[in-house]
């Protein structure tokens, strides 16, 4: 019985602290958006620009030093970043909406 008396304050402390802060997960926000609002794998650069407009930023291309290392281009839009291999979309990644949002670590350049 005495063991339970010692555990009660600890349980009360844990219960009180659990509702203090709620994190926004990047994956939760991405899953809420319909896929139609993002570029699709295989689209060309011109198709992406025609549908979503000019990107905020066109990052410097990476790769291409060897034939087996294709050139990768990145276009940054407000809500997502598009990765192109040569002229085709290979991936789209959602950007963080706020600094406190939990998501992938920023790339090391």
Q: CA-to-CA gap between the ends?
A: 58 Å
Helix content: 25-40%
Strand order of the largest sheet: 1-2-3-4
* Secondary structure tally: strands: 4
What topology does this entry show?
Layout: H1 2-18, H2 26-32, H3 45-52, E1 57-58, E2 72-76, E3 80-85, E4 88-94
Antiparallel strand pairs: 1-2, 2-3, 3-4
Keywords:
4 strands, four-stranded antiparallel β-sheet, alpha+beta
Structure description:
There is one protein chain. By secondary structure, the chain is α+β, with helices and mostly antiparallel strands. It contains 3 helices and 4 strands; from the N terminus they run αααββββ. Helices cover 29% and strands 18% of the residues. A 4-stranded antiparallel sheet has the order 1-2-3-4, with no helix packed on it. A hairpin with a 2-residue loop joins strand 3 (80-85) and strand 4 (88-94).
In a few lines, what is going on in this structure?
With 109 residues, the chain is α+β, with helices and mostly antiparallel strands. It is built from three helices and four strands, in the order H-H-H-E-E-E-E. The chain is 29% helix and 18% strand.
